[in-house]
């Protein structure tokens, strides 16, 4: 008996037409659009509505950009206020009341020891440009060229930012081991693994035969995001600060994704009490609009006028939205809220391992969470943990989308399912997210033997 398919609606036809035209017109480098075939038309808070009428819970949040979710009232009000005031929207790097208010609010959130002696450089609108500025800054200030960076890192898509990311081969960059409990580069994990990673770094810096000349700086993420949500141990991070400070090596903290309360502290370096010499910031500081800055100790302010410039450094709407976001997160203690709610979500995700052997590890800090999926029967080369299961991870992501939940992948072989919900997430919404994820995980496990499920997946998206 033939099955009659329902007639397509006007909304469905429009949705499919937009996706078809995107595939024909846009470049092969597009990423999120490949794994998330949706056409957002409205959004509020955690929820996105597509052109086909479907609703989704958004746990991607613009790759961590939307600290307050979509179209938060305080952000919309801040933007409307600037638009209604008649203020110029494009001002290069000139001083404006909006810029002054943003800078004042931003400095109020910084580690006090940095805020008391800080300078700020407004960069191009993407975090990768702020990374470029930070590298240029420390090279100018020290007169040196080499950099220290870490395995698993991700700092952006421009040439210099890629050079200090995990997969690069620039000979000026010395790659150091980043500690990980689950996939420890030394095979031991825990405090012992972090200690060995620190000793490795100290040995390279102090051994004249190591081939590592005194570098211009060290750049790290307090929690590696695209690398699979790998938090830096607090003691190890303090050790990196001590090592660099003793050797006059500027320490750069890339807080592009971890900042503005995401990890349970306003800035993720706050967990360890570390005060870096340079902080790179973007994503959430613009309140959903493009904005990127570098904040650094005044002693490093040695570059000449025009050493790092850009046409779109003066985004007034982003500064207004960003100031409103920073103030709302601070005044409503959303970092503390992220810490408590994130811990509860993580505990439930860790509990899935008992009935789902494919859950190798669930980890994170605050509302920056990753679930690494593995093949429990296949050993991993160079690690005591099982082999990553990228096909299963892609199947889980797709099953989540069918259930109205948006997540994305990262980590080794894109086998880590990442959750970056807005900091305004309610308890009820958190339960709905976890219920849909657990159901999608079970469905993907049942289907994983199918060749399409094994083959599903794409390279991890990179947004910066």
TrEMBL record:
<comment type="similarity">
    <text>Belongs to the class-III pyridoxal-phosphate-dependent aminotransferase family.</text>
</comment>
<dbReference type="InterPro" id="IPR005814">
    <property type="entry name" value="Aminotrans_3"/>
</dbReference>
<dbReference type="InterPro" id="IPR049704">
    <property type="entry name" value="Aminotrans_3_PPA_site"/>
</dbReference>
<protein>
    <recommendedName>
        <fullName>Diaminobutyrate--2-oxoglutarate transaminase</fullName>
        <ecNumber>2.6.1.76</ecNumber>
    </recommendedName>
</protein>
<dbReference type="InterPro" id="IPR015424">
    <property type="entry name" value="PyrdxlP-dep_Trfase"/>
</dbReference>
<dbReference type="Pfam" id="PF00202">
    <property type="entry name" value="Aminotran_3"/>
</dbReference>
<dbReference type="InterPro" id="IPR004637">
    <property type="entry name" value="Dat"/>
</dbReference>
<keyword id="KW-0663">Pyridoxal phosphate</keyword>
<keyword id="KW-0808">Transferase</keyword>
<comment type="pathway">
    <text>Amine and polyamine biosynthesis; ectoine biosynthesis; L-ectoine from L-aspartate 4-semialdehyde: step 1/3.</text>
</comment>
<keyword id="KW-0032">Aminotransferase</keyword>
<dbReference type="InterPro" id="IPR015422">
    <property type="entry name" value="PyrdxlP-dep_Trfase_small"/>
</dbReference>
<dbReference type="GO" id="GO:0008483">
    <property type="term" value="F:transaminase activity"/>
</dbReference>
<dbReference type="InterPro" id="IPR015421">
    <property type="entry name" value="PyrdxlP-dep_Trfase_major"/>
</dbReference>
């Amino acid at each position: 008996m033939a099955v009659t398919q329902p007639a397509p609606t006007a909304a469905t036809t429009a949705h499919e037409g937009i996706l078809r035209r995107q595939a024909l017109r846009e470049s092969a480098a597009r990423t999120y659009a490949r794994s998330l075939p949706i056409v957002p038309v409205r959004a509020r808070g955690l929820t996105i509505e597509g052109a086909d009428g479907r609703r989704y819970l958004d746990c991607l949040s613009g790759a961590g950009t939307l600290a307050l979710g979509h179209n938060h009232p305080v952000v919309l009000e801040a933007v409307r206020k600037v638009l209604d005031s008649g203020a110029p929207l494009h001002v290069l790097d000139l001083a404006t009341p909006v810029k002054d208010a943003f800078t004042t609010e931003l400095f109020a959130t910084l580690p006090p020891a940095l805020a008391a002696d800080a300078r700020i450089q407004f960069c191009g609108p993407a975090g990768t440009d702020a990374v470029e500025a930070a590298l240029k800054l420390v090279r100018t200030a020290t007169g040196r060229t080499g950099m220290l960076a870490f395995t698993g890192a991700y700092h952006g898509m421009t040439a210099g930012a890629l050079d200090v990311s995990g997969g690069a081969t620039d000979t000026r960059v010395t790659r150091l081991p980043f500690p990980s409990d689950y996939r420890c580069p030394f095979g031991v994990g825990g405090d012992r693994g972090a200690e060995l990673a620190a000793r490795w770094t100290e040995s390279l810096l102090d051994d004249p035969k190591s081939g590592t000349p005194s570098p211009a700086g060290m750049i790290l993420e307090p929690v590696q995001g695209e690398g699979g949500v790998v938090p830096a141990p607090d003691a190890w991070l303090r050790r990196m600060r001590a090592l660099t400070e003793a050797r006059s090596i500027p320490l750069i903290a890339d807080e592009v994704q971890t900042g503005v309360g995401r990890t349970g502290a306003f800035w993720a370096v706050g967990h360890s009490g570390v005060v870096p010499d340079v902080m790179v910031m973007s994503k959430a500081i613009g309140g959903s609009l493009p904005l990127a800055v570098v904040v650094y100790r005044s002693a490093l302010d040695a570059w000449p006028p025009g050493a790092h410039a850009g046409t779109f450094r003066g985004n007034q709407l982003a500064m207004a939205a960003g100031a409103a976001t920073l103030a709302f997160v601070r005044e409503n203690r959303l970092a503390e809220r992220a810490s408590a709610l994130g811990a509860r979500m993580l505990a439930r995700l860790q509990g899935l391992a008992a009935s789902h052997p494919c859950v190798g590890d669930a980890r994170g800090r605050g509302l920056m969470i990753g679930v690494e999926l593995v093949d429990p029967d296949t050993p991993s080369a160079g690690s005591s943990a099982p082999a990553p299961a990228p096909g299963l991870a892609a199947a889980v992501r797709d099953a989540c989308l069918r259930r109205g939940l948006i997540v994305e992948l990262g980590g080794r072989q894109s086998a880590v399912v990442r959750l970056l919900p807005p900091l305004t997430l309610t308890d009820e919404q958190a339960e709905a997210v976890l219920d849909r994820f657990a159901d999608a995980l079970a469905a993907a496990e049942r289907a994983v033997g199918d060749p399409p499920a094994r083959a599903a997946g794409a390279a991890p998206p990179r947004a910066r």
